[in-house]
Design a protein that fits this description.
The complex is a heterodimer of chains A (328) and B (254). With 328 residues, chain A is mainly α. Chain A has a single domain, classed as Up-down Bundle (Ferritin). Chain A is built from twelve helices and two strands. Chain A has a two-stranded antiparallel sheet. In chain A, helix 6 runs antiparallel to helix 7. The longest helix of chain A has 29 residues. The two termini of chain A are 20 Å apart. In chain A, 45% of the residues are buried. Chain B has one domain: Up-down Bundle (Ferritin). The model of chain B has no long low-confidence stretch (mean pLDDT 97). Helix content of chain B is 69%, strand content 0%. Classes of the chains: A mainly alpha (328), B mainly alpha (254). At the A-B interface, helix 3, helix 4 and helix 12 of A face helix 2, helix 3, helix 7 and helix 10 of B.
Chain lengths: 328, 254
């Protein structure tokens, strides 16, 4: 999983390149246009660095927070096969966080600073994890459809311009494709299982559909700001394009299983474009800003884990240990 | 194999498999909550090994006529488990989890090393594979035991306190079975007493490096009972949680 890059649309385009050396900026943009990757020691505009840190950091946070709703089902997974697979999956997600924090650290912000910003609520993570995983089926739906959404986002971002992030994403996407298979296999098992199992998976899908529709974020405002980020290959696809791609790939699979999606207006029109009821973006904003059902709990759990682990980190931080910036 | 040998081997397999399942379950509870990401990942990795090893042993039991591994693991009640009480205790803080991991894995490594030469070939085969995995678990435990035992005052005090708390439970791992003499005589297993002696010899150098003291032997009071189904109040909720989904619809394939 899990990240979806959500770039703050309130940033002003003009401010993004204010004060930058125009020659360096031009050379930088030429490299990107030529498909070159930008590496940690290369010159880059301040705003490029800032946006990337924000994006990679949010992605990393999403991985560790995302481990919580799924992680609660590890101890309850039914049978050895599912238990082992779920453990491995969630472990992968935590591993992704590790990779991503390292990628972000190459831009000059330490992991500790990022985690502090997470637990103080200063930086965000994917909104979907502010919803609870009520049943085993919720964990299965997350593994299939949230990971599917994340793959669409991450495959796009892997073609971006910042080398360390792209390399991390390549590896992450490979692992995610297994998660997707795992999630799909689980959902198929439930959807073709007993009455109780079918009810369980339908309930989970109904609960998770609105957060899934929110996953890619609201329609992008066409602004100079977006245009620059796309030129810099920080943002690789529009939110709506990614949502369309997701619907196109997964709605038929969901319907094939005899499951019902809670949107009577959902259909593919003659032009091949998916039509749907506009998601409730007020709800989205409310949840992003802390008003979701689990925001407080997720951060409290994370804060508690940080607090309980402090003595371990302090013990590691001895005179012979020395901080090393990862090479990406 | 005669009937009596079969019962003796089953008893041995049950206690080992149950130890692994329950410690694996406890290890997995650290997922998402470790003190640093790398440790989160380590505990998750060890948990996967343990649960996989438990499954392999339940499979051996199945081959001896017991029920399927899933049925055995996910439908028994707490008093039907044969794990040592040490592994069912809650994770506590990281100090306790590490100390338990150190004490348990040293014993387990020696147990599987001995069993690699067992006269019961199916078990010997599994043991030869498992001991390769356990090498890394023990390496992890030793590294952290030494590091945290000696890093600073707080970490030392915490590790020593956790060690004192775990010690008698750890001794309880070596509770003898009623088939002990038979298993030894038939070359299936070297026996708990020998295992405990080797274990003590193995852990001592690391404890010296860590500056952790073993309680005086006059105060040793092994917590037995786990092997015959007597458990602390912690096991029952663990087993209920573990089997919650499985029992939700016992007729279902999951």
């Amino acid at each position: 999983m899990y990240g979806n890059a959500y770039i703050d649309p309130s940033d002003k385009a003009a401010a993004m390149i204010a004060g930058e050396d125009s020659e360096k900026l031009e050379a930088f943009e030429k490299r990107i246009a030529a498909g070159e990757k930008i590496e940690p020691k290369d010159w880059m505009p301040k705003e490029y660095r800032k946006q990337l840190i924000r994006m990679i950091e949010q992605h990393a946070h999403s991985e560790i927070i995302g481990a919580l709703p799924e992680g609660t089902w590890i101890t309850r997974a039914p049978g050895f096969r599912r238990k082992l697979a779920l453990m491995a999956k969630v472990q992968d997600e935590v591993g992704h966080a590790q990779l991503l924090y390292s990628a972000a650290e190459t831009l000059g912000k330490s992991r500790e600073a990022m985690i502090n910003d997470l637990i103080t609520g200063k930086s965000k993570y994917s909104n979907v994890f502010n919803y609870p995983a009520f049943t085993w089926a919720d964990a299965c739906v997350i593994a299939w459809l949230i990971d599917a959404g994340a793959i669409i986002n991450q495959v796009a971002n892997a073609k971006g311009s910042y080398g360390p992030y792209c390399r991390a994403l390549d590896r992450i996407c490979t692992e995610e494709s297994f998660h997707l298979k795992y999630g799909h296999d689980n959902v198929v098992t439930l959807a073709t299982g007993t009455q109780k199992q079918r009810e369980m998976v339908q309930g989970a899908l109904t609960r998770w559909w609105p957060p899934i529709m929110h996953f890619f974020g609201p329609s992008d405002k066409i602004s100079n700001h977006t245009e620059i980020l796309m030129r810099w290959k920080v943002k690789m696809a529009s939110n709506d394009d990614m949502r369309q791609q997701f619907l196109n790939m997964y709605v038929p699979k969901i319907w094939d299983l005899g499951l019902v999606l809670p949107d009577p207006n959902l259909k593919q029109n003659e032009a091949g474009v998916w039509e749907y009821t506009e998601p409730d973006w007020d709800e989205f904003k409310r949840v992003i800003n802390g008003g979701g059902p689990c925001n407080a709990e997720r951060l409290a759990v994370r804060r508690n884990a940080e607090e309980r682990g402090r003595w371990v980190r302090e013990a590691l931080n001895t005179s012979e240990s020395k901080y090393i910036v990862p090479l990406a | 194999m005669n009937q009596n040998s079969s019962e003796a081997i089953k008893e041995l397999l049950y206690k080992m498999a149950d130890d692994l399942l329950i410690i694996g379950h406890r290890n997995s509870e650290w997922t998402g909550l470790g003190p640093i990401l790398e440790e989160d990942i380590s505990f998750s990795s060890m948990a996967q090994d343990k649960i996989g090893q438990a499954q392999a042993l339940y499979q051996l039991l199945n081959d001896l006529g017991e029920q399927e591994p899933d049925t055995v693991a996910f439908t028994r009640n707490a008093n039907q488990f044969h794990n040592a009480q040490l592994v069912e205790l809650p994770n506590g803080e990281y100090d306790f989890s590490l100390v338990r991991h150190f004490l348990y894995d040293h014993a387990d490594q020696l147990r599987f090393e001995a069993l690699a030469n067992s006269s019961y070939e199916p078990l010997a085969k599994v043991a030869r594979k498992v001991k390769g995995e356990l090498k890394y678990h023990v390496f992890h435990a030793n590294t952290w035991m030494v590091k945290l035992g000696s890093a600073n005052e707080e970490s030392h005090n915490r590790m020593q306190a956790a060690f004192n708390e775990a010690w008698n439970y750890a001794l309880g791992m070596f509770e003898k079975s009623s088939f002990e003499d038979q298993l030894i005589a038939e070359g299936v297993f070297e026996g708990e007493e020998t295992l405990q002696e080797k274990w003590l010899a193995n852990i001592t150098p690391y404890l010296i490096k860590a500056g952790i003291e073993i309680p005086a032997s006059t105060s040793w009071n092994p917590v037995f009972g786990g092997r015959i189904g007597n458990h602390t109040a912690n096991l029952s909720p663990l087993v209920e949680e573990m089997s919650e989904v499985f029992r939700f619809d016992p007729t279902a394939e999951w």
